[in-house]
Amino acid sequence: MNQHIDPGTLRADDGIERGGMLLHVDNISLSFGGVKAITDVSFDVKKGEIRAIIGPNGAGKTSMLNVINGFYHPQEGTITFRGEKRRRMRPHRAASQGIARTFQNIALFKGMTTLDNIMTGRMTLMKSSMLSQAMWWGPAHREEIAHRETVEKIIDFLEIEHIRKTPVGRLPYGLQKRVELGRALAADPALLLLDEPMAGMNLEEKEDMSRFVLDVNQQFGTTIALIEHDMGVVMDLSDRVVVLDYGRKIGDGTPDEVRNNQAVIDAYLGVSHE
Amino acid sequence: MLYRETGDFKSSYATDQQTFPIRSERYLFWGAMVIAFLVVPFFINDYWEKSVLVPLLVWSMAALGLNILTGYCGQVSLGTGGFMAVGAYACYKLMTAFPDLNIFFVVILSGGVTAFVGMLFGLPSLRIKGFYLAVATLAAQFFLVWLFNKVPWFYNYSASGQITAPERTIFGIAVTGASAPPWATYLFCLTLVFLFAWMARNLTRGTLGRSWMAIRDMDIAAEIIGVQPLKAKISAFAVSSFYIGVAGALYFSVWLGAVEPTEAFGINVSFLVLFMVIIGGLGSILGSFLGAAFLTLMPVLLKNVMVGGLGWPTDLAAHFEIMLVGGLIVFFLIVEPHGLAQLWRLVKEKLRLWPFPY
């Protein structure tokens, strides 16, 4: 078991160096019936970076994340994750390959405690059989305690010790977001997808969350792809930004490049059609 | 004062994870167990055995099973009666086919057979949810009871269509059949229920239990963080049916001794167990016991009060009892929709501060 809080260690050990290609999205097209959600989008995520995906409402950002973690199956294009190319896969396969995510509308398990929610994040790493779990004492118990230690470190890191045993349904929104980040971190992800981690938060909560995102990236070396609407946050946090509009990629580059890109400015501010 | 956490420090994760984290709670539990195992067998008589304690244990076992499926995994089932019938008939066939096999193993194997049948009928849960799944399990209920009525092989071609449990012994003491002493049948059921309740608790606090609860609370998120829906749902059906099968086997062999499928395993049994789980508390081991106790003991108590205490005619008392129990169910559901287990949890929260609440 890894004893330090290092969600990067177990899965990041894949021979890809920092700055190497972790995820490559090639010519993805996704449509639902007649609605084209994503059209021919390609971009990459390098190991160790914070990659932002931005765009106006309905641009296809969340659909893109859903494609990456196997929830939607694109009609065209391929995804290469850690050198392995794939077309179709079930979400739990993506999870066991090291892709974890949080959701735009919190998707915590409301009836379970904070601790149990984060422990569930380690699902793919826990191997004891049903019979040994029924017996409890022995391998299942040892495994439970070993993982509990890692989970407790994540709880310390996110400063949520006081709500460890509280059912998450009772927690305020900001804390729920934090627990959800904890659950994703617990999976030791090689790639962490954050879908609007700061949505609906006040300034102070946003600052906290930004700090956690940066710490996760810098201390653990976890690669992060995030969707966010708060431009201040995006420009400050991310190393590179990809901009989508109506399912097409209209910009890609460092925050400064994107900020000065005419197509991006048009998409956000609108452009007069004379 | 009696019940408090203060001063009860935990210094390892093992002690933090125990079932009863508070000392007085542990004493209460083990005290109750000592009474149940060492005191009650000396005082038990035929009436207490057949109308109170064995029914309580059998229904607790069934409620535990359904609670795993419905309370923990969120899959509604109306097939409990049918699965109990599978347990009972498996038990009967095994008892008659292998007369030398110890009844303990017969009961466990009956559970295994039911687990397999439960998995088959659980397959639709991969595609359908909620009320629609309830209707699909209703099909199991009617199909299985029909099957045991129609195929003579299941009741060994007996003329009456009934199945009757032959006498079987453990350590030379009969636990099934007409001459089994009350204390022996009681202890047999109690041991099984104790063992399986403990295992249910272990399963629900471990990885498997968390995967069930994740599916119950938000199945899409569960799948995305790595829970396999197929594995979680089918294992819930298997474990749940195992418990219900064991309950069915005990119901037939130890409690009733002889059963006729339409009457003993009808749809009303499915509803009874579902009500136990709902009234007791979904997703709670204690709740399964409280619900079973409420619905088996309350009618006995009311009957004793009305017939024995007030001297009413039996038929009037019987009708009045149904009305009262129904009324009480409504009352409890309004007072505490999350069941008796939640009520107990609230009492505990109050007790923590007693006698100085702020």
TrEMBL record, chain A:
Superkingdom per UniProt: Bacteria
Pfam family, one: ABC_tran
High-level lineage: Bacteria, Pseudomonadati, Pseudomonadota, Alphaproteobacteria, Hyphomicrobiales
SUPFAM superfamilies on file: P-loop containing nucleoside triphosphate hydrolases
InterPro entries named among the record's database cross-references: AAA+_ATPase, ABC_AA/LPS_Transport, ABC_transporter-like_ATP-bd, BCA_ABC_TP_C, P-loop_NTPase
Protein name per the record: ABC transporter ATP-binding protein
Alphabetized UniProt keyword annotations: ATP-binding, Nucleotide-binding, Transport
Organism: Hoeflea poritis
Domain ABC transporter: 23-271
GO MF annotations, alphabetized: ATP binding
Keyword ATP-binding: yes
From TrEMBL, chain B:
Keyword terms of this UniProt record: Cell membrane, Membrane, Transmembrane, Transmembrane helix
Keyword Transmembrane tagged: yes
Membrane topology of this protein: Multi-pass membrane protein
A Pfam family assignment: BPD_transp_2
Compartmental location: Cell membrane
Transmembrane regions listed in the UniProt entry: 27-44, 50-69, 101-123, 130-148, 183-200, 234-258, 316-335
Protein name in the entry: Branched-chain amino acid ABC transporter permease
InterPro entries in alphabetical order: ABC_transp_permease, LivM-like
